[in-house]
Amino acid sequence: MAPLWTHPSPHLTRLDAFRRHINKQYNEHIRDYTSLHRWSVENLDLFYRELWNFSGLVTSKPPLAVANSLAAMWPRPQWFPGAEMNFTENVLATGLAAHPDMTAVSACREGGTEWRHLSWLQLRDQVALYASALQNAGVGKGDRVATVVTNSLEAILIALASGAIGAIFSSTSPDTGPKGIVERFAQIQPKILFVESQVLYASKRRNLRERLSAAVDELKTKVTGLDKIIVINDPAWKKSGLRGGLLRNIDLTLDASVESRLRGSSKRLLDLSSLSKYLLIIQSTSYSRKLPQFNYLGIEATPKETNPADTVWLTMNSSGTTGTPKCICHSGGAVLLKNKLDLALGIDMGIDSTYYQYTTKNDRKLTLHTSDHQTGWMMWNMLIGALSLGSRIVLYDGSPLHPTPSFQLSLLESQGVTHWGTSPKFLAGLRSDPESSGIARRLESLQNVLVSGSPLSTSLAAWFYADNFQRHVGLHNASGGTDLVGGIVGGNSLSSVVGSEMAAATLGIKVEIWNGDGKNTVPSGEIGELVITKPFVSMPVKFWGDDATGNRYFDTYFSLYPGVWSHGDLISRNVATGGYSIHGRSDGVLNPGGIDGCPILRALPVVLVRVRFGTAELYDVVSRFPEIEDSVVVSQRVRRCQQNGESDIEDERVVMFIKMKSPGDALDDSLRSRIAEEIRRTLSARHVPEEMWQVKDIPCTMNGKKIEKVVKALVAGEKVTMRGSIANPECLEEYVKFSTPGKLMARL
């Protein structure tokens, strides 16, 4: 297959400069990406040393080594021992040094009618104010700062303020249900919680106070150290007092917190020079390895808190497939290095770039608000990574489909976006919007498009370049995960785009594809388990609450193949092109698509948004119905058929099988509706299964555990041969009749 895209000037890219540096430094003769990747995984110590140097991290103490050992993946290596750094200083350093008066962040509300812009100097000062507020609220090094906020300027400021004072940042989106909020934050015991109680979506302002109050009811009993809840942008709560003030010392708005802590009852903040004893002046004027003091408004200051580079800065949560979501902990140094690797070397982002990334969520019916800018997903953190490169970022808070999908292209044009992060589902929506092609062809500034979240179809990749987007734009399909806060396979400026394939493995990531016998299937091109066989820098530091031996961490990544990271994806590699294709999850994570129910989408024949979640959340809801004995939930891959008869949109839907307690009872429409409503109320509309079917029995293991993988295989039309481990194999035949249908109309 002929390439759809090759970089027009690869010799001008940062990746090629890195290649030339490696050749000169180590007397190598690397000519292409394949050889560069091979060198990176065969010389891990040298590669990560050069990545550290390339990244220009600012430290108060330099690293003593790349790692304490790279001989094995488990136990996890300690990375860059001896290095001390301030996370937020490193995020701001490049932009402040390169163009302090230029715009760092542009944030807008839905429809682009309300914009806020901050220069790098203004961003630094705002972060300093937020950091001061946190410190004066009693938050210190190692304390957790939690947020339930949208993709807003406030989210960025809170994250950076947390890093400035050595606190640990954690976030989830406002559409998370009360149970989800409690499950995630009860683990880490935050000291302070920021929430947004109302959000704008599809031109409607959604009130989230009831949901947040329900979460607070439970949080106050499970998080004993939660001192404050700060409600952003909602003066109405000053009257309600958050149900009469369930928690002590509640600050109602961020401004109130800053004002009350810093200057009493005065209505205006004092000038910065008079706040010197409160402020963190975070700035770097060079790439020096030493942490310099610097002068600002006559005040000499340095960041107040530094941590070892391998210290936890960020916690993120798994989907909760087998129970309570795992709390995955990432270090500040790893997040910075991985982001710089993926963005600067991967898609050539730098100080001359403008990055716009929205992260999609599923809301089929708009009976419940959802934020398309999900701060709890890994891709949101890439925005902070872009800032560390000196790039400008654009934040958008609201529905990307309002007033039309093509509005997003107008935003790209008006803001001069060079790098755009989106999803195949959204591109499919643009294909059906008659206005999109004309705008796409005008996008002179656009250089690279990063797509993730679901498989990219070959036809969609071909459409992208068929007189729609300009030929110089790279369409980079990528796959990675929260587990490593970045990519595993994806595109780059030295590799061609061939169909919908992901061009190559990321530098420093030793990807292999193993079958059930633990043999590498890469030479044959067969589908197998995606594994990583050598250590990489963004391995999680730990799981929060794990035991001293890291038992849960080990079970998650290393129990399938001892000593080898198993990622949970099915993948294959094209022997001819070297490109990779993901074939779905190999575990029980649900990753459905769905149609947003806003009126504009009634004309769109495709599913646009996607979210990942676990089955345990659904089982918990179903267990509340006394007439139901058991259930099993799996994902089912289907082809969505457009109104014109085309069927090239690959999708994944959630289906639920239910066993009634009494053999004479039926799963009727009334019960289906009640189940759906309870799921929608407790979790969200995006959790509601597309189909619910009654079955006689649920397959289980000898010790009584339901077997999701077997059901998933059966509804996909696959044969199940491992019946010996199934306690009730006679029930399997009933599931065959629910195997994947040939075509389904897109749900409008």
UniProtKB/TrEMBL annotation:
InterPro entries: ACAS_N (IPR032387), AMP-bd_C_sf (IPR045851), AMP-dep_synth/lig_dom (IPR000873), ANL_N_sf (IPR042099). One of its GO terms (molecular function) is acetoacetate-CoA ligase activity. Residues 33-91 form the Acetyl-coenzyme A synthetase N-terminal domain. Residues 97-538 form the AMP-dependent synthetase/ligase domain. Pfam families: ACAS_N, AMP-binding. Belongs to the ATP-dependent AMP-binding enzyme family. This is AMP-dependent synthetase/ligase domain-containing protein.
